[in-house]
Amino acid sequence: MTKILLINAGSSSLKWQLVNMPAEHVIASGQVERLNLPGTIVKVEVGGKKSKEVVETLDEMTAIDRVLKRLITVGGVQSLDEVEAVGHRVVAGGTVFKGPVKLTPSRIDQLKKLSELAPLHNPLEVKCIELLAQKLSGVPQYAVFDSAYFHGLPEKTAIYGIPYEWTKKYQIRRYGEHGISHQYLANRAAEMLAKPLNELNLITMHLGSGASITAVKNGQPYDTSMGLTPVTGVMMGTRSGDVDPTLVPYLMKRLDLETPEVVLQELNASSGLLGVSGVSSDMRDLHEAAKHNKRAKLALEMFVNQVVKLVGAYYTEIGGADALVFAGGIGEKDPEIRQAIIDGLSILGIKIDTTLNEAGDTGPLQTEDSRAQILLIPTNEELAMARGVQQVMDKDK
Predict the structure, then answer these.
(1) 361 is a catalytic site residue
(2) Does 381 count as an annotated binding residue?
(3) What is the pLDDT of residue 11?
(4) Within the chain, how many helices (H) and strands (E) appear?
(5) Residue 44 lies in a domain
(6) Contact 144/90 with Cβ under 8 angstroms?
(7) Residue 15 among known ligand-binding residues
């Protein structure tokens, strides 16, 4: 058995698991929510026992320190020396990394060079890798890439309407993100529907602070909402989602800027739910604020509308769907948003059972006469990551 520590650092949360492989036994797990926001939430589970505490604001680095300390204090391990490998979720692998890899100094340098493809994520993930290399000296580290799942997108959905020479010369394409999650969700949906994956059309929705939607046709990814970088698609916690590209030079002129970096930073870190509402990037805060704040209410309505628009487009694009899958922090925990999204898709004959939706249990949520099934599936990126790490370790034996 090999104890693998899995680190999944996102834009607003850090999830982790300590897993015994290849048995896939979770020894301990946890999540740090509301990173860089007041009232950071720290959750830990060991042996079915759960704990939760609210602490002062944690950033990604202090969160990792807390995770390592909790591993020992909650009984996950007696000593950090028991950790034999570390697996990291890395968002952007570009065309360089098409599957999981063992990390070396040269590969870490390559990850740094890919930061422009995921400016909120890759630099953070490299920091996590370097920090854990210090904290767990000598322990091999591995990267599992979100973008790898989308390497097989059909060219007609993968590339943009720009000069084809640019596409090839500069490797400009729709890389997509959350691929680890979307792949897990597709496989899990097939299990729940008791059908071969290659016979299914699915629309998987990973809705959280980062949000993306993927169309799966005959079991394979066919289209996805994120593009060259994770700023595109539906609006998110702090990311704008799709905007007219001429917005960048337009704002550069209005703000008297010589380079686009400031505008791009704002589109990534100060836009989306936060930018529209002026209140928060966290959906929980917005639900409360929307009772008396018109901008918070508008942000919620925009988010729902953009999800509905994309799901409707994908439903047509793949010729109908056997199931719609909700996952991610919002998709799994926010029945109000789920209800609003499905209500917006009523023209397609897709209907949600209000009682099942409010209960929020894993499994089907649709009514008996719904044209497509609606599944709530808690994503498990960490399990998919562990399998990817194990795959590389087995090859290296």
Answers:
(1) no
(2) yes
(3) 67
(4) 15, 14
(5) yes
(6) yes
(7) yes
